[in-house]
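A quick word before the example. In earlier lectures we treated sequence and structure as two separate objects. From today on, think of them as two lines of the same record. Here is Glycoside hydrolase 68 family protein written that way.
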Amino acid sequence: MRGIFDHPLPCPRVFEAQDIWHFDPSQTLWDIWGVQTDAGDLAQVDGASLWVMLCAPRAQDPDMRHTCARLRLLMRRDRVWHDCGNLLPDGFSPGSREWSGSTRLDLKTNVMTLWFTASGRRGEEVCSFEQRLFHAQADLVFTRNVPVTRNWRDLTQSVINTGQLYTDVARTPGIPGRIKGFRDPYWFRDPANGQGYLLFTASKPEHQSTSHYDGVIGIAQASDRYGLKPFELMPALIDADGLTNELERPHVFVYHGLYYLFWSTQKQVFNPSGVQGPTGLYGMVAPSLFGPYQPLNGTGLVLANPSEEPLQAYAWQVLPSLEVVSFVDYWGLKGRDPRADHVLKARQFGGSIAPSSYLELHGAKTRIVSTGS
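And the structure line, produced from the sequence above:
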């Protein structure tokens, strides 16, 4: 990552007021991902694509959304977005909140498989930072041209974290702003051998870590073809011990024979005594899933927020089509700090779908082609 500020940062355009819109002004949306096929392509159903985001009632303190997050199903048809309601039925999740994951759809059977993070425990009086990975299936049907999930079933804990390979966040949760991770499961089938895996955000266990900044990208191997049984944990795929506390929303796909691995990291979770980086989308490339990896663009940085609006978006996902989706975080600040002004913080939190960017990939080099509407 050294030398990251020696060159102009790769940035999309600055968002404007017309970029910030909501299905329902009373709701907040964040952490978007597409419903994909088993091969990773965006699933197309009846001429539309399906998406999932986290959702919560809009509050004066935007940070409160993490204490009541639910998964929300969305549809995009002819560039128009439609809200399709909560993805999971009430009381189905074993957590007190539903956090990010990934979703696959079998286009032959219309069976949807969801891997997600159950945060906390159902019924707990005080929200905890415990994170567990689960998966379940449902049938996708269309009612009056609106997608609906029915018959949710086979809720299974995807992996059991014993604390040997990754921090057990039930015992070592961290502190607000620097919580430990065991979340964001992302399903990937390796085209080289057909084996299925889960990638996830994790933290290095204390007995192996050299720093409080101990973020890693974890990986687990499926024990059956479709990832419906418990997975086997494996050693971390990427280790950022000593550099940063979080490598969030990891995802990978194969493009022109190379494996591109991406994640998001915020500026404030970098080790202040080490190499610094901006809030942005980072990535590495390798000839195989298990490496060896080299940082994209020499530093790992693929996309950063504009310097004049360093908080405008977060939680990027790169699709195999090279469209980059994210959500609008704090926009239109013009150099002001939302942490110092509660009114500004509430007013300038977007909580909506951000304009997409588009990439070009050429080996270990990337370039932002455009930012759309």
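Notice the following. The chain has a mean pLDDT of 95. We will return to this example when we discuss secondary structure assignment.
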